[in-house]
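Subject: Interface between my chains keeps coming out wrong

I've been trying for a while to get a sensible model of this assembly. When I model each chain on its own everything looks fine, but I need the whole thing in one frame so I can look at the contacts. Pasting all components below, labels as-is. Any help appreciated, I'm running out of ideas.
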Amino acid sequence: MTYAHYIAGEWVTDDAVSININPSNIDDIVGEFSRGDAARVDEAVAAANAAQPDWAAASPQLRHDVLEKASNLITSRKDELGRLLSREEGKTLAEGIGETMRAAQVFKFFAGEAIRNVGDAVASIRPGIDVTVEREAVGTIGLITPWNFPIAIPAWKLAPALAYGNAVVMKPAELTPGCAWELAKILHEAGCPTGVFNLVMGPGSTVGARIVEHPGIDAISFTGSVATGNTIAVQCASTGKRVQMEMGGKNPLVVVDDADLDVAVATAINGAFFSTGQRCTASSRLIVTAGIHDAFLEKLTSAAANLIVGDALDAATQIGPVVDQKQLDQNLRYLKLASNEGCDVRGGELANGPGFFMKPAIFAGATNQMTVSREEIFGPMASVIKVADYDEALAVANDTEFGLSAGICTTSLRYASDFRKKAQAGMVMVNLPTAGVDYHVPFGGRKGSSYGPREQGSYAREFYTIVKTSYIAP
Ligand code: NDP
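Reply #2:
Try treating it as a single job with all components included. I did that and got this:
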């Protein structure tokens, strides 16, 4: 069977296919997925443009019901979808099922938001005139999603787009189209009207690029690498498309002398290595003050060495495989670079097996100026940077071109409060991993990490709606 695109309510296959491979076992083929081209995008945009006005004009109850049904269908299939996610992306089964449930929660939340899309009635400064401020759908939105959260990120872009009356053309990452395909099937079953949601699979260089340049697309929401994101942002600016970019991170976790050592180590292990470090919110810089540094490093090294790396579907596994050979090669290049730059590299061995298995690596003795502490690596690797005190830790934490998430482990209210105020990041965590967020509050960063309005929670309305101010004289 070849998995088909979903365009204008129909399943459409192409002769060209992309093979989806299980990174835990490269002999296991998850499926063959149709590989589209610019013409497929054009078909999808035409369908979306035709369907969008009626969808926006429909009762919010209809949009609520579709999204709620989609949420219920995801929940009813959470084990199967979580397994698919782990099979195609390599997250552990617990993480895969957890991410699937997150997608269900997001759809449920935005089912409610469809109905709560209230506006303002404002007194005019001119007598006898009524002023209203309302939010309308933007139009047709292009969604371009990465491989590292193959169901949650499509869900948190798709659900608000649909809730507020937009039509969608979505392109998932070539590496992980399976979960996005299942979402298309679920939306079909949930009664999403023809053309409102369209899925076109294929490479970013052709399918993605056509979505970005297509004049029938009104806005682009993208998550992925800095390089691709910046290119897309420039293209969108030149064609007047609204744009929302979630890109990289080099997230600091500060550990100060008064931290609870066990909490600090558990927080660092989770933030740096869970999901194989393949999270834009991963704690890739562990900035540790001198008094606790040696004890922290020793305990971290031993905890990291004890993590069980293996097949994502094995219940005992704590760290699944790297997503593919290309990412593994990139990780190995950074591992070598860390040694060359003078780090004491602990771990990072390749593990045996039919997949892309790599043990977590700690770059002890790192400085913040090293390339391994400045570029997003996107693997199970973290720099440990020793600093004199809290003030230096804060300065180092902020000395980065990124600003997505920043964390601190401390038992001092003074440090926690100061860090919360001064960390140059979109999200701040105290005694919690830099990764791991709620779905009903804004997600996003500052500096090079993000561009445009925030995602998630009611803040998503900012991007997926456009304001209209009306003046009415009787
Ligand atoms: P990309 O930014 O290349 O991919 C993200 C999405 O954009 C994919 O769907 C991709 O398509 C698509 N895309 C690629 N080129 C274009 C284009 N010219 N126009 C429109 N869409 C495009 O990231 P990669 O998957 O290649 O990963 C590379 C690195 O990016 C990782 O090693 C990591 O450092 C970082 N990354 C960061 C993420 C984050 O959340 N911060 C998420 C994923 C990656 P396709 O891949 O299907 O060809």
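Reply #3:
Confirming on my end. The two ends are 62 Å apart (CA to CA).
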